[in-house]
Amino acid sequence: MLISSLFVLAGLLVQAQHKPIDWALLAKVTWEEKYYPKYDETVWYPAYSKEVLGLDSALIVIEGYVIPVDVESGYYVLSANPFASCFFCGNAGPESVMELQFPKGVKEAFKTDEIATFKGRLKLNWDDLEHCNYILTGALLK
After folding, report:
1. Helix (H, G, I), strand (E, B) or coil at 34
2. pTM, rounded to two decimals
3. Inside any domain, residue 5
């Protein structure tokens, strides 16, 4: 009984490990135009690859450039590229940025283009235009 309990516990610990991923994997997405009546606009809608779909809700680790979007509210984005060549400057696609959502009560401060590694749970966002297509919930510095 004790040995089987240890195997179950070991299995849970393995599942709780954060899987390292890179931006090349997240780039495996295509884009289709979709009309959103709420905004009266046509926007790009993600069609995630099977590999990316398999990461939805997974615990991950990823490194990138921190882009402060709204420092006062604690809104930061992690980018595959530095600010001068990131999505917000029109030099990269939306698959190259990830919104960082820190746990409640956690206040972080980063400089533009600071390279950092984060861990958290990846959330794929299909249709909430107020957020990035990739969101790292429970984001913590690794």
Report:
1. strand
2. 0.84
3. no
Query: What is the distance of C-alpha 89 from the center of its chain?
Result: 19
Structural domain containing residue 70: 18-141
Q: Are 21 and 55 in contact (CB under 8 A)?
A: yes
Identify the CATH number of the domain in which residue 46 sits: 2.40.50.870
**How many CB atoms are located within 10 Å of the residue 110 CB?**
17
- Which tokens belong to 119? 């861990």
**SS3 of residue 85 by DSSP:** helix
Could you tell me the two tokens for 35?
């009309």
Query: Does residue 37 fall inside a structural domain?
Result: yes
Closest Cα partner for 47 from 32, 25, 27? 32
Condensed to tens digits (0 to 9), the pLDDT of residues 67-113 reads 999 998 899 999 999 988 877 777 788 899 999 999 998 888 899 99
C-beta atoms surrounding 25 within 10 Å = 16
H/E run at residue 14: helix 2-15
